[in-house]
């Protein structure tokens, strides 16, 4: 079996801890994501998919339980170490692409590399242009994100997510706002990247037609994994 890029053991997440309205939304989650997988995360609205994604993406911490990324337990890491791990190992694609709309496609893709490097450079710009070429956007590389279609913006977001060569990309309904044809293009682009580079993808989707084309479907219902807890085989 492939090495696990992510391992959760008995992860619980509660909101409003210690207050009268404290609610636990994830209950004792055990989950393994195999390196190189192309994985769908599905479940009803409010079941805890985004909460789980935020924990795996180190954007939020579990209330209890443990999370390892690439074999590294995260519970003892301080905030600076968490930020470093997140910045280098994990890329994000959100439903609303979260691009800086006044920046060009190229500038948006450069952004994580500029932040990591402390300043822009010709090499960073060249890598951004190469990534935009990979997602089919060379002709609009210097267009502002503001003036691009939803499908194009999502392709820029994928290029940006790939910029730091992360081992894991977390995508929260990346095709949710797109028409069928654009959604297919964005989905296929992620699949091609997964196969070409071995980057692991975990994709939250309500689209079962797309989910069934992934290597594995992980289902969350009421804060518990009901299907796909471990890789098959
Ligand atoms: N910051 C928060 N404070 C309090 N409750 C929250 C917070 N974030 C999420 N919740 C609650 O946690 C539960 C799970 O929410 P979550 O967004 O993870 O579900 P989801 O499966 O991603 O839903 P959807 O498919 O609608 O995006 C919901 O009941 C939600 O109201």
TrEMBL record:
Residue ranges of every copy of the ABC transporter domain listed in the record: 6-233
Record PROSITE patterns: ABC_TRANSPORTER_1 (PS00211), ABC_TRANSPORTER_2 (PS50893)
InterPro entries in alphabetical order: AAA+_ATPase, ABC_transporter-like_ATP-bd, ABC_transporter-like_CS, ABC_transpr_LolD-like, MacB-like_ATP-bd, P-loop_NTPase
CDD domains tied to this protein: ABC_MJ0796_LolCDE_FtsE
Keywords (A to Z) from UniProt: ATP-binding, Cell inner membrane, Cell membrane, Lipoprotein, Membrane, Nucleotide-binding, Translocase, Transport
Cellular component terms (Gene Ontology): membrane protein complex; plasma membrane
GO biological process: lipoprotein localization to outer membrane; protein localization to outer membrane
Gene3D superfamilies in alphabetical order: P-loop containing nucleotide triphosphate hydrolases
Molecular function GO terms recorded: ATP binding; ATP hydrolysis activity; transmembrane transporter activity
Similarity comment text for this entry: Belongs to the ABC transporter superfamily. Macrolide exporter (TC 3.A.1.122) family.
Cited PANTHER family: IMPORT ATP-BINDING PROTEIN, LIPOPROTEIN-RELEASING SYSTEM ATP-BINDING PROTEIN LOLD
Designated name of the protein: Lipoprotein-releasing system ATP-binding protein
Organism: Bosea psychrotolerans
Lineage: Bacteria, Pseudomonadati, Pseudomonadota, Alphaproteobacteria, Hyphomicrobiales
